[in-house]
Amino acid sequence: MERGQEGRRPTWAAHQRSPAREGEVIRMSGLDGDPSASAARREAAEGSPQQHIVVHTSPGRRLTGCLAGVAAAVAVIIAGVLVLSAVHLLPQLRNPFAESTTVRSEPVILKSITSLSRYEAASGSFQVIVDLSRKARYLPSFIEGTDTLFVGQGTVIAFVDFSQLGSKDIRVSPGRTAVTVRLPQPRLEPAALNIRRSYVFAQQQGLLNRIGNFFSGNPNSQQQVYLAAQQKIQAAASHSPLLAQAKTNTRGMLTSMLHSLGFSRVTVIFGRG
Predict the structure, then answer these.
(1) Domain limits, the chain
(2) pLDDT tens digits, one per residue of 200-231
(3) Which residues of 53-74 are buried (b: 16+ CB within 10 A; e: fewer)?
(4) Count of beta carbons in the 10 Å neighbourhood of residue 215
(5) Which of 89, 115, 189, 270 has the fewest CB atoms nearer than 10 Å to its CB?
(6) Is 125 helix (H, G, I), strand (E, B) or coil?
(7) How many angstroms separate the CA atoms of 21 and 58, rounded?
(8) What whole-number distance in Å separates Cα of residue 193 and Cα of residue 135?
(9) From residue 94, how far is each of 75, 81, 98, 244 by CA, in Å?
(10) What is the rounded distance in angstroms from the CA atom of residue 42 to the CA atom of residue 174?
């Protein structure tokens, strides 16, 4: 903007008194509306060319403001619902993307029945940590190979088999006051792994293994680590005091039962020979 003849800036006064409507033009002139200004200043202002400012108002701004207000209101409502649901003032919101599990199976078929003639004398619970590593020759583990850390829990039962007992294994004294029972040595059942309490703690796979599992899943990929855990539990049970405890429990059971039958002296021997 250029200065007037006396180097003074012209002031702006609006000819329109009422507020502008949508799409209306507001014109501003360079006249000074101050009644206390000097006559020379008025003349200089009147002699200078009149300048105008044109202001266009657009309905787009009002629409943008309305949309922003609606978005803010919706955000406040959603936040309030989440807070009330978190403090249990409203029913819990269900995740629309939650996974669901469906179990489909055929009717269970009974394959066989086995008659048992044994006494389960003792049971032991074991836990083992298996670190199973599989690597390929000439390839680093981050390309081909797996490392699995597995925590296995299982149970081993010690039992005494009564199915082969005969008359020669039970000797009664002439006065029926004493009895001697000869039994086979107690044995261990195969370790039974508890699937609910056994789990994979950590697993690392090479790049090629990940790609192979992505394109073709292997349902038996964890079978080897389960078998390893079962074998280690079975070996630990054979070196544990489980068999000795089975002998003690079996001897105590037979002694109590035979005493109730009138025998004053009961002898239980393990090891048939």
Answers:
(1) 13-57, 60-93, 118-270
(2) 887 777 665 566 654 555 555 678 888 999 99
(3) eeeeeeeeeeeeeeeeeeeeee
(4) 6
(5) 115
(6) strand
(7) 9
(8) 26
(9) 19, 13, 8, 55
(10) 152
Dihedral sign for Cα 217, 218, 221, 226, please: positive
- Please, which pLDDT band fits residue 33 given cuts at 50, 70 and 90? very low
Asked whether the beta carbons of 234 and 191 are under 8 A apart, the reply is yes
Per-residue pLDDT of 122-181, as tens digits, reads: 999 999 998 877 777 777 766 667 778 899 999 999 999 998 888 899 999 998 899 999
And the tokens for 2? 């250029």
What are residue 121's DSSP bridge partners? none
Give alpha helix (H) positions in the chain.
39-47, 59-86, 207-215, 223-238, 242-260
Q: Which of 69, 265, 65, 49 is nearest to 176 (CA)?
A: 265
Question: Has residue 91 got a pLDDT over 80?
Answer: no
* CA–CA dist 163, 116 (Å, integer): 8
Under DSSP, the state recorded for 152 is: E
Among 69, 24, 34, 27, smallest CA distance to 50 is for 27
Nearest residue to 172 via CA among 253, 263, 270, 273: 263
Q: Are 198 and 230 in contact (CB under 8 A)?
A: no
Distance, in Å, from the CA atom of 130 to the CA atom of 235, rounded to the nearest integer, reads 14
Choose among 66, 197, 53, 208: nearest CA to 141. 208
Give the pTM.
0.56
C-alpha dihedral sign at 129, 135, 141, 145:
negative
Are the CB atoms for 90 and 84 separated by under 8 Å? yes
Amino acid identity, position 95 = N
